[in-house]
Phosphate-specific transport system accessory protein PhoU (Paenibacillus hodogayensis), 219 residues
Amino acid sequence: MTKRHNFDASLNELRKELIDMGGKVERAIHLSVESLKAGNLALAREVIAGDAELNAMEERIDDIGTRLIATQQPVAKDLRRIIIAFRMASDLERMADLAVDVAKVTLRIGEEPLIKPLVDIPRMAEIARQMTIDSIEAYVREDVDLAYRMAKMDDDVDQLHSQIMRELFGFMVENPRTVNQSLLLCFVSRYLERMADHATNIGESVVYLVTGKRPDLNA
């Protein structure tokens, strides 16, 4: 095998790990909010237990990339591919941690009935989940337009977050007995808002990969 062939094979391995990690993170986001909606404590525990695998995936991506830099000394776009792999893995790992945080809220609420049926929180989660899918797709296709779309989706999540916070603070004022659960749901909204920020970071990384310039899509 030529040196370039070995390099391309390792890059493909890196790409596959990122795609797999993105899929698992997307699933963790979905399951964490489903556990909250349904009060499904077993599902919440499944999300928490799955975090170790995602941490291991980030470590594998770091190992592959570090080995490539050390042995192949890549330059230009090849080097950018490895640098953004590190960044993407870090963002995905943080999103997985936030899904775990949502699952932990499910456990804290336990069997207590929800103060209201959840509508906007699942909407936020669906957008964050789609952003995860789209950000990985943008990376695979090196699609700058799709990457820039992250900014609009992030704005939608921010608006829902503000709406949820207003509603929950209203609950707390009207009925002090809802304070504890309202605060926990505020945390969930914040976790989902942060997930969208990390997906937007991946969009920025894709733009950097293709153009060599890193925009601020979270502005």
